[in-house]
Amino acid sequence: MLAAFIDSGAFYTHIRRCRRHYAERQQVFLESARRAGLPLRFSQTDGGMNLLGRLPAGVDDVRLSRRLRTRDFDVPPLAAYAFRPQPPGLVFGYTAFEPKTIRHEVQRLSRLLSTRVERRGGVRR
Predict the structure, then answer these.
(1) Which stretches does DSSP call E strand in 1-125?
(2) Residue 125 within a domain
(3) Would you report the helix, strand and coil content of the chain in percent, each value rounded to 5?
(4) I need a labelling partner for 70 at 20 to 30 A (CA). Which of 3, 8, 17, 98 fits?
(5) DSSP tally for the chain: helices H, then strands E
(6) Is residue 68 classed exposed, middle or buried when 0-12, 13-18 and 19+ CB atoms within 10 A define those classes?
(7) Is 75 part of a structural domain of the chain?
């Protein structure tokens, strides 16, 4: 059954459709983040299913991620993926969400981050 799916070309059609959706959603996420003024820097934006948002130096990404989880955001810290210490960052997944949801949640995230990162100098280490 899987071989037939691949041989028929349906698999590659599916992959192309997913790539288009993911690219659109990534663009919506990045544009929404820019408009909202998120205190994050996104440098690797050439594709994929996740984006790394670098936080200002000194922010404890593990503590910030935990606090965001209490507000229903599942945004893992970069530290959870690193073998060596890294500058702080959060890993964002966006492919499972419709553009409208992405826009709304980025706005909500912006309000939380502006309180946590900018006004109080961040969740420090």
Answers:
(1) 41-42, 50-54, 89-93
(2) no
(3) 55, 10, 35
(4) 98
(5) 4, 3
(6) buried
(7) yes
Q: What angle do CA 47, 122, 95 make, to 5 degrees?
A: 20
Question: What CA–CA distance (Å, rounded) separates 50 from 48?
Answer: 6
| Cα 12 to Cα 16: distance, rounded to the nearest angstrom | 6
User: Which CATH number fits the domain that encloses residue 103?
Assistant: 3.90.1150.10
Structure tokens, 80: 């959870």
Residue 74 lies in a domain: yes
Give pTM, 2 decimals. 0.86
Helix, strand, or coil here: 98? coil
Number of domains in the chain: 1
* Dist. CA 19–CA 103, nearest whole Å: 19
Enclosing domain of residue 11:
2-119
Burial class (CB in 10 A: 0-12, 13-18, 19+), 1: exposed
